[in-house]
Amino acid sequence: MKKVxxxxxxxxxxDAAGYLRKANYDVTLVSDRDYFYIYPTSIWVPTxxxxxxxxxxxxxxxxxxxxxxxxxxxxxxxxxxxxxxxxQSGKVLDxxxxxxxxxxxxxxxxxxIENTLSICAAPEQSIAIADALDKLVAKGSGKIAFGFGGNxxxxxxxxxxxGFELMFNVxxxxxxxGIRQNFELNxxxxxxxxxxxxxxxxxxxxxxxxxxxxxxKHFGKKIKRFxxxxxxxxxxxKLESDFTMFIPAGAGHEVIINSDLPTNEAGFVSINDYCExxxxxxxSNVYAIGDTAALEGPxxxxxxxxxxxxxxxxxxxxxxxxxxxxxxxKGYQExxxxxxxxxxxxxxxxxxxxxxxxxxxxxxxxGHMMKKGWGWYCRNSKLGKIPxxxxx
Length: 392
Ligand SMILES: Cc1cc2nc3c(=O)[nH]c(=O)nc-3n(C[C@H](O)[C@H](O)[C@H](O)COP(=O)(O)OP(=O)(O)OC[C@H]3O[C@@H](n4cnc5c(N)ncnc54)[C@H](O)[C@@H]3O)c2cc1C
Fold this sequence. Notes:
By secondary structure, this protein is of the alpha/beta class. It has helices at residues 11-22, 59-66, 125-139, 161-176, 200-212, 254-257, 305-323, 366-382; strands spanning 3-7, 26-31, 35-37, 56-58, 69-72, 75-79, 84-87, 92-93, 98-101, 106-107, 142-148, 183-189, 216-219, 223-227, 230-233, 238-240, 243-247, 250-251, 276-279, 282-288, 338-343, 347-353, 358-364. The strands form 7 sheets. Strands 5-2-1-9-20-19 form a 6-stranded mixed β-sheet, covered by helices on one side. A 4-stranded parallel β-sheet has the order 13-12-11-17, covered by helices on one side. The chain has a 3-stranded antiparallel β-sheet with strand order 6-7-8, with no helix packed on it. Helix 4 (161-176) links the parallel strand 11 and strand 12. Helix 1 packs parallel to helix 7. The longest helix has 19 residues, at 305-323. It is globular. The chain starts with a strand and ends in a 10-residue tail after the last helix. It binds flavin-adenine dinucleotide. The site of flavin-adenine dinucleotide (FAD) has 32 residues, from helix 1, strand 2 and helix 7.
C-alpha cells in the first residue's frame, strides 16, 4: 500500500485524505489543530448566533470516518528533495511516497496589527471578536470599523467577503437589540472598489445595501497603520474606531517560504494545473492544494474552499492515475470560479463569477437559512454521514 503524507487539516487536507483512503492509500494527516474549522460559517460566532464548537469538526471523528492516521503537531520544516518533514515536537516523517501540502496561508503583516482582530485568522479570534462586541453592546454605543487589505504580489489571496458578511450581521444584531442608531459602522479597504471581482451587478447591489443600512465607506486609501483607537491612512487621516476588525490579505506560509519548494513572488507553492510541484525541472512526488498553492488564471480568481476541494479531489485522482502509469490527469483551472452565499444576517446574496458571467441574486431570509443548511451539510458530508452532492 502506497503511503501519502498530508500536511494540513483544512478543506484541502481533509478532502484529500478522504479520497485517498477510499482509493486504499495509507494516509497520514498532520494538523496543528485537533479540529477541522468550517470557516464560511464562522461569521456567526462573533454575533453569538452559533457557538465556536458548532463550526469545529473533531479531527478524531474524521479519522474514524475515513481511517487515516492522525498526527496533531505543527510542521516546522519541509525538505522536499530529502523526502523529509520535521514536526515541532522534533518527530521526523520521511517514510512516504507522496507529500500533499495543504497548510493554508499566513497573513500580510501591517504595523499595529495587534490593535485589530480578524475573522479570517486563527479560529479563536472569532471568540475574541464576540467578546469585543459584547463590551461595546454593554456600553450602549460606539464606532466599529471593518476592513480588508490587499496583497499586490498575489490578488487571489485577498479576502473581503467575510468582512462584509460580519458587518451586515453586526448591523442586524444591533438592530434587533434596538441600539443600531447609537453605533457608527464603517468599512475600509485600500482598493477604490472593494469586491469588484464579484462583478459590477454585485457591486451596485452592495452599494444599495450600504446606503440602506447607513454603513459608511472609506475606500481607496492605503492603510498606514492601526492604532488602539482607529485606522491611520497613507494621507495621515484617521478613521476613529472603538473596535477594528481587519482581514489582512493572505501571504505565503512561513514553513513554505523556508522550505525548498518553489513559490511565486507572494510565497505560495508553484504548481501546474494538476497541482503537481516541479522540483529541479521534474515533476516531483509533491502536490500543493488549497490556499497554500499559487493559483494561475484570470484576474478575478480567488482562493476559496470549493477550489481547495476540487484540488484535493484532483490530486487524489492524479496520484492514482500516476500509479497506474496512465497519462490521464485532472486540472483545477477549468473549475475556477467565484461561488459564495454572502450572508447579510437576515438573508443572503448568491454570488457567482466565471469567465462568461458574473451575477448576484438576492435571497431574502431563505439565503440565510441556506447558508446555515450548508454548514450542516458540510459537517455531515465530511463525516461520511450523508452523501456528497457533486460540486458542493
Ligand atoms: C471567514 C471565512 C469565510 C469564508 N467563506 C467562504 C465561502 O463562503 N466560500 C468559499 O468557497 N470559501 C470561503 N472561505 C475560504 C475558505 O475557507 C478557504 O479557501 C479554505 O479554508 C482553504 O482551505 P485550506 O485547507 O487550503 O486551508 P485552511 O482551511 O486554512 O487549512 C489549513 C490547515 O493547515 C493547518 N496548519 C497550518 N499551519 C500548520 C503547521 N505549521 N503545521 C500543521 N498544520 C498546520 C491548519 O490548522 C489547518 O488545519 C472563507 C474563509 C474565511 C476565513
